[in-house]
Amino acid sequence: MSVAALMFPLLFLFVLAGIPIALSLTIVSAGAGLLAFGPNVFGQLYGSFYSAATNFILAAIPMFVLMGAVLERSGIAERLFKVMQIWLGRLPGGLAVATIAMGAVFAAAAGVVGAVEVMIGMMAIPAMQRFRYSNSLISGTICAGGSLGTMIPPSVIAVMYASLAQMSVGELLAGMMLPGLVMVLLFIAYLMVHGTLWPPERTELQDEIEDISLAEKLRLTITSLVPIVALIFAVLGSLLAGVASPTEAASVGAVGALLLCVAYGRFSVTMLRESLQITVRISAMILLIVAAGTMFMGTFAANGGSRLIRSSVEAVGMGDAGIIIFFLLIVFLLGFVLDWTANVLICVPLFTPIIRQTGIDPVWFGTMVIIVIQTSYLTPPMASSIFYLKSIAPPDMTYGQMCRGVVPFIILQILTLALVAFYPPLSTWLPDQIVGF
Amino acid sequence: MTGIFTAVDTFSRILSRVAEAVALILVASMIYEVAARYVFSAPTIWAFDISYMCTGTLFVLGAAYALREDAHVRIDFLAQKLPVRFRQVMEGTVFVALLAPIYGGLSWFAVKRAWRAFTTAEVEMVSPWAPLMWPFYGLLALGLIAFTLQIFVHGLRIFAGNQKADFELKA
Amino acid sequence: QEVTWQVPTSVPEGSPFYINFLERFADNVDVLTQGRVEIEPFGAGVLVPALQVYDGVKDGIIQAGHSTPSYRVNQDPINAIFAGFPGGMGPEAYITWIYEEGGKEALYDLRAKEGFKSLVVGIGSSEIMAHSNVPVKTAADLKGLKYRTSGPWAEVMREYFGAVPTVVPPGEIYTLLQRKGVDLIEWGPPSGNLPEGFHEAAKYIIVPGVHQPTFLWEVVLKQETWDAVADDLKPLIETAAELTTMQGLLHFYAEDVKALETYSKGKNEIITLDAAFIDELSAAGKDWISKKSEAEKEAGKPEMAALLADYNTFMDRWSAESSYLIRNQN
Ligand code: NA
Ligand code: NA
Q1: Which of chain A's residues have a Cβ under 8 Å away from the Cβ of B75?
Q2: Membrane-spanning residues where (chain A) (predicted)?
Q3: Which residues keep their CB under 5 angstroms from ion ligand 1?
Q4: Which B residues, 137 through 156, put their C-beta within 8 Å of a C-beta on chain A?
Q5: What percent of chain B has pLDDT over 90?
Q6: Is C3 left (phi over 0), alpha (psi -120 to 50) or beta?
Q7: Does A59 sit within 8 Å of B30, measured CB to CB?
Q8: DSSP three-state, residue A111
Q9: What is the pLDDT at residue B72?
Q10: d(C-alpha C91, C-alpha C296), whole Å
Q11: Which residue intervals of A57-155 are DSSP H helices?
């Protein structure tokens, strides 16, 4: 077996031995790098590290994390979720549905996974726990909601995919829109069914809420919900109006959150410092994984990784359906270890010429690849969504609960994939209608 | 020995504080760019460089302290089933014998790179602002050195069983 | 094989530059050396950071790298002459200067001082001056417009035309142009822009590419890496480079025509600037680069001024005597 192929089992070994993900990636990269670059291995690894450290698009991560931390530390998030519970309390799975909806909304504003997930997670976990949602449902909801940033335009990953695949960015973004919508609706439907069958047990909090007078409810709503909605509009609006680029929109969110704190009289130096501490800790964790993933990609490629994939496609020699399944499988497997940038950088150039030869619709194929990438973030044991969740989860939320929690959402994503696969117009109809100015 | 450990912890903590300030600069420079471009139609030539440099700096400077806080995500459900002493020896070895030399090598190259940027007065390659690059390279090197030291100290602590309490608590 | 080089470039795998320059070079080297030399191309950011290909070679991480002098202009402005600059020679004249009138030798000498062996691998056609949300027909139209551009053109736009050059990272150009966060953008030649989809984001396409009349890419190696190559292989590799440059340029022309046909057939409006405005833009660019080279001279570095004089001499001769050429332009 080639070095490139051996890198994966070795990585699993270190990860399962309990070595931090980023450090496991580094060790395997260094070993493979030594074989490919000899004494220059450190220069090469440093280059990958540098690429990640200078990637402008990653700036969205610390800013969204800061936004979430500020809203959570200041108590604004708690009030928001209380208000949502007031109005959604009777809706089965109310808070979970609200969390997914928030995920979808912020996903529309952000292109990077992790950013939205951590932000929403920080706000929603305490609130959902207070209302006795089960830990696994909370985990699944947050991981799934956060990963929607991939599917819902504008997504940085789709822009990068289209540009690498030499296809229209607009068409791919439009192609993903309906499947993204279907996915959100499936998530919501599932949460409502789940909420009907296994409603969270009633808490005193719920009684308290029901005792509140209507006038008070309205007052709470106006004072809590309206400013947050304004914040969402600021982030999304700045993006849609062309005021800010997707990455810059994150700064609008962070500043907006700080202004909200001031307006609520919740701003304090302690709150700000705590929020900044959280921001640095979580950003360091996420970005170190990205940096180490970049190292892994470089050494994987240098050891013939791309050639390995290319030759196995040729060796198997299958029809269109076989090629599609094989490619999606590779994306899925690489998605276990690589962050999306690395995954797309390796796979798309490999697939593009072959897809073009076969005459498979590139928008249809691209949509499926992006759904699969999103699914691979969610799928244990190596799932970036779960890693990010772990960094903000309270100690009583276990890895096992997280893994169980994401399963239904993985199934729903596969269902979306199947819908797109068997009914291509789901992804190809809209681009024909709307692309252009 | 504990004196050195504490010194390393403190160093990491200080860098992490710096990283917090950098996070604020990141947000401020980016929102400034948005306003400057949209409201005043006068985008800066520096916001882009400052933003990516802040992002890079903040995570590298924060990495060491995040390790001290055990914030680098790991999957330990399987490892927890291993005997505590075995796990300590294994993790200690990985940190001291594998990770410390690797990050040591990275730090060494980072210092070399920063020094070259300084002596050749290297500037940003595509930016119209074309800032000198050595401060950024220097901060990356500093963060990597701190991370290396923290990795080493973490490994020794595990060997010594200092973090035994942690291990048993989680298991 | 006797020699295997892993060669990264500064653009992603699959981009027209990658396929047309680097992959073509790998194929030509394979044919001409009968498989004795293998070039294994890599896309940007995989082996070394996209913009640090030269550094990667210098540090010995990679044996050879493919990149463009554009990325070295900030460090040493003399590179602007090779990178192509506003008001400079178009591809026909430039490729003639490079291969017949001493341009190539000047580049190779410059690189030799930095310890590199250089091979020109890729000369491009003219770029599209802008994909724009607003029509631009005169200098007055440029005033106050937010223009995503970089390098010399950014300075020319700001200093001579009052436009507002704006830095936008590659992944966000499309979104910001589409949402009208910037008024206009420049990126690459027509066939390079087509897959980026800019024509779907903005209505107007402004030509010709005064800002970037042509561009050049090169493969660099450490001198000792080159010296170690068997003597009978060296001319074969050099011929492969030259062949690649010729084929690459012709291929760009062919693909550009197709791209422009696509633009014309669609909803875009193509604005061809009138001769007077083109002259005005070119003059500003030439003024910018001559000031730059004078500043270098005053700083004790006369090389850029000398090279520019040489370049200008040939450009003037070409302009004066090329009226005999049939260009089949409408
Ligand atoms: Na998105
Ligand atoms: Na350009």
Answers
A1: 15-16, 18, 21, 381, 399
A2: 48-71, 92-125, 137-160, 172-193, 220-242, 249-267, 279-302, 323-351, 363-389, 401-423
A3: A 107, 111, 149, 152, 155
A4: 140, 144, 151
A5: 73
A6: beta
A7: yes
A8: coil
A9: 87
A10: 26
A11: 60-73, 76-88, 94-109, 115-130, 135-147
Cα(B168)–Cα(B82) distance, integer angstroms: 11
Contact C72 B125 (CB under 8 A): yes
Quick one: tokens of A123?
Answer: 């706000």
Q: Which pair of structure tokens corresponds to residue A267?
A: 């701003």
Name residue, tokens 């080159």: C226
User: Using one digit for the tens of pLDDT, what is the confidence trace for A297-314?
Assistant: 889 989 988 788 777 777
Contacts of C61 in chain B (CB under 8 A): none
How far is residue C249's CA from residue B1's CA, in Å, rounded to a whole number? 66
pLDDT in tens, B109-165: 999 999 999 999 999 988 888 899 999 999 999 999 999 999 999 999 998 876 544
Q: Is A51 close to C14, i.e. CB distance below 8 A?
A: no
Mean of pLDDT values over A211-215: 78
Angle at A38 between CA A35 and CA A39, to 5 degrees: 150
The letter for the amino acid at A165 is: A
Q: How far is residue C39's CA from residue A139's CA, in Å, rounded to a whole number?
A: 48
Of the candidates A333, A328, A396, A418, the one whose C-alpha atom is nearest the C-alpha of residue A135 is A396
Q: Degrees (nearest 5) of the Cα angle B96, B102, B104? A: 85
- Written in H, E and C, the secondary structure of chain C is CCEEEEEEECCCCCCHHHHHHHHHHHHHHHHHCCCCEEEEEECCCCCCCCCCHHHHHHCCCCCEEEECHHHHCCCCCCHHHHHCCCCCCCHHHHHHHHHHCCHHHHHHHHHHHCCEEEEEEEECCCCCCEEECCCCCCHHHHCCCEEECCHHHHHHHHHHHCCEEECCCHHHHHHHHHCCCCCEECCCCHHHHHHHCHHHHCCEEEECCCCCCCCEEEEEEEHHHHHCCCCCCHHHHHHHHHHHHHHHHHHHHHHHHHHHHHHHHCCCEEEECCHHHHHHHHHHHHHHHHHHHHHHHHCCCCHHHHHHHHHHHHHHHHHHHHHHCCCCCC
Tokens of B47: 């916001």
Of C51, C165, C169, the CB nearest to B125: C51
Q: Name subunits touching C (3+ CB pairs < 8 A).
A: A, B
- Of the candidates C14, C175, C179, the beta carbon closest to that of A164 is on C14
Distance of CA B151 to the CA centre of its chain: 11
Decide which of A234 and A256 is more confident. Answer: A256
Quick: pLDDT tens for C207-263: 999 999 999 999 999 999 999 999 999 999 999 999 999 999 999 999 999 999 999
Q: Is the dihedral of CA C216, C222, C224, C230 positive or negative?
A: negative
Per-residue model confidence (pLDDT) at position A149: 74
Would you say A209 and A82 are in contact if contact means Cβ atoms under 8 Å apart? yes
Contact C250, C184 (CB under 8 A): no
Give SS3 for A98.
Answer: helix
The two structure tokens encoding residue A132: 């006795």
Q: Chain C contact for A311, CB < 8 A?
A: no
- In angstroms, the CA A379 to CA A390 distance is 14
- Nearest Cα residue to C198 out of C279, A139, C190: C190
pTM for the whole structure: 0.90
Name A84's bridge partners. none
Ligand number nearest CA of A150 is 1
Amino acid (one-letter) located at B104: G
Distant-in-sequence contacts of A288-291, Cβ < 8 A, 24+ apart: A288/A22, A288/B59, A288/B63, A288/B66, A288/B72, A289/A21, A289/A22, A289/A25, A289/A339, A289/A384, A289/A387, A289/B73, A290/A52, A290/A55, A290/A58, A290/A339, A290/A341, A291/A22, A291/A48, A291/A49, A291/A52, A291/A53, A291/B59
> Domain residue spans in chain B?
2-170
